[in-house]
Amino acid sequence: LVVLRGRGTQPRYEVLPPLVTIGRSVTNDIQIPDSEMSRKHAEIVFRDGRFILRDLLSTMGTYVNRKLIQGEVVLHDGDEIAMGGTLLQFVMPRQHETDPPPSVGDEVHPQLPYEQTRLHTPASSWDVDDQTRVQRVMTLMIEEGPNAGEKFVISAQRTTIGRSIANDIQIIDQEVSRKHAEILRRDEAFILRDLGSTTGTFVNGEPIEEIELQNEDEILIGNTLLVVMFL
Q1: pLDDT tens-digit profile of 40-62?
Q2: What mean pLDDT comes out for the span 103-117?
Q3: What are the strands of the beta sheet with 189-194, ordered from one edge?
Q4: What's the rounded mean pLDDT across residues 100-120?
Q5: pLDDT score recorded for residue 210
Q6: pLDDT of 113-151, one tens digit each?
Q7: Comparing 198 with 96, which gets the higher pLDDT?
Q8: Fold observed for domain 2-90
Q9: Contact, 171 vs 141, CB < 8 A?
Q10: φ and ψ at residue 5, rounded to 5 degrees
């Protein structure tokens, strides 16, 4: 696992079969001191020759290639894994790294150095400029309201929010207009815009017409409170 962005204590972590746990607690095989990660956030299991990522009912969820996973998913070389504020990339090990130890009398071939077996590019290529080019991902968590507990990943250029089923995010709240608001993506910025709603759109208690969203902003539309999180 290569750290692309976040609070990892080292630039990469080794995933050793058969099981590796990941989370904020020091009891994990891979401990990442990220306050947005759960104590036991996820695990990677090696099963039937494949590496399988499983979310452990984390608070913020686990994302693979910007999609929220449900249960478990098979990892592929180059997959990007987001947990809390940390972005990792899964680099598939060479075949011999997952093979069982050779039996006595078997021919043993010399292994390549760690850098050549773990990475497809030299470690020096993982610099700050590469990390800043990783596209941001925004999530909306509904904290209060009829849809409380639901979570949405915002990645499209335009995402509409409202009571109508025609919206990208439908909120079943009688105080929410049919077409209440929209989120526009402009490069790395996410812009929230009110669409002339009846009850208005509020960010951190202030009414808005248009505003750039920041991490942990609270959005109130009708009786529904949403919290912004960036990955």
Answers
A1: 999 999 999 999 999 998 988 89
A2: 37
A3: 169-170, 158-162, 181-186, 189-194, 210-212
A4: 38
A5: 96
A6: 323 323 333 333 333 343 334 456 788 989 998 888 888
A7: 198
A8: Tumour Suppressor Smad4 (2.60.200)
A9: no
A10: -160, 140
Assigned architecture for domain 138-230: Sandwich (2.60)
Task: Find, among 166, 177, 168, 173, the residue nearest to 140 by Cα.
Answer: 168
DSSP assignment of the chain equals: -EEEES--SSSB----SSEEEEESSTTSSEE---TTS-SS-EEEEEETTEEEEEE-S-SS-EEETTEE-SSEEE--TT-EEEETTEEEE--PPPHHHHSPPPPTT---PPPPPHHHHH-SS-GGG--HHHHHTSPP-EEEEEEESTTTT-EEEE-SSEEEEESSTTSSEE---TTS-TT-EEEEEETTEEEEEE-S-SS-EEETTEEESEEE--TT-EEEETTEEEEEEE-
Task: Judge whether 32 and 6 are in contact, CB under 8 Å.
Answer: yes
The residue assigned the tokens 């899964």 is 90
CA–CA separation, 42 and 31 (whole Å): 11
**pTM, full prediction:** 0.46
Structure token pair of residue 84: 């809390």
d(C-alpha 65, C-alpha 89), whole Å: 9
| Structural domain spans, the chain | 2-90, 138-230
